[in-house]
């Protein structure tokens, strides 16, 4: 699970980096996105996923790197909470992709 959490972090970093490059260098320019409501929803989701991911990352950092038997016992309550957080992160990533597509195609509330 620690590696999966690190994968989420890497995926988010790549998403933000490619979005920045697309908005500033390759895409339609910053002005196209700044005036689009879908872009701001996407940015809010990015911030939300960062805050949500802190829960699981903090949990994994508290776990020992390696237990003597290469297993770590996790309390059922913690397991359920972290599993829920990972599902929330997955849903938020899907929503970020959806709203990024809307913003890139110029779809807005107007």
Topology:
Layout: H1 2-26, H2 30-34, H3 37-62, H4 76-104
Helix pairs in contact: 1-3, 3-4
Q: Helical percent range?
A: over 70%
Largest sheet: none
Kindly, what is the distance between the CA atoms of the first and last residues, rounded to a whole number of angstroms?
42 Å
Q: How many strand units?
A: 0
Q: Helix- and strand-based class?
A: mainly alpha
Provide a quick synopsis of the model.
77% of the residues lie in helices and 0% in strands. It has 110 residues and is mostly helical.
List the defining traits of the structure above.
77% helix, 4 helices, single chain, 110 residues, elongated
How would you portray this structure in words?
With 110 residues, the protein is mainly α. 77% of the residues lie in helices and 0% in strands. It has 4 helices and no strands. Helix 1 packs antiparallel against helix 3 and helix 3 runs antiparallel to helix 4. It is elongated and about 50 Å long. 14% of the residues are buried. The model has no long low-confidence stretch (mean pLDDT 82).
């Amino acid at each position: 699970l620690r590696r999966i959490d690190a994968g989420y972090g890497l995926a988010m970093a790549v998403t933000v980096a490619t979005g920045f490059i697309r908005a500033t260098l390759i895409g339609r320019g910053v002005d196209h996105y700044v005036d689009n409501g879908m872009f701001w929803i996407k940015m809010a989701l990015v911030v939300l996923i960062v805050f949500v991911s802190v829960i699981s990352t903090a949990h994994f950092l508290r776990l020992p790197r390696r237990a003597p038997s290469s297993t770590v016992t996790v309390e059922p309550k913690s397991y359920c909470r972290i599993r829920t957080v990972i599902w929330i992160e997955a849903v938020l990533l899907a929503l970020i992709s959806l709203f990024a597509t809307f913003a890139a195609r110029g779809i807005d509330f107007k």
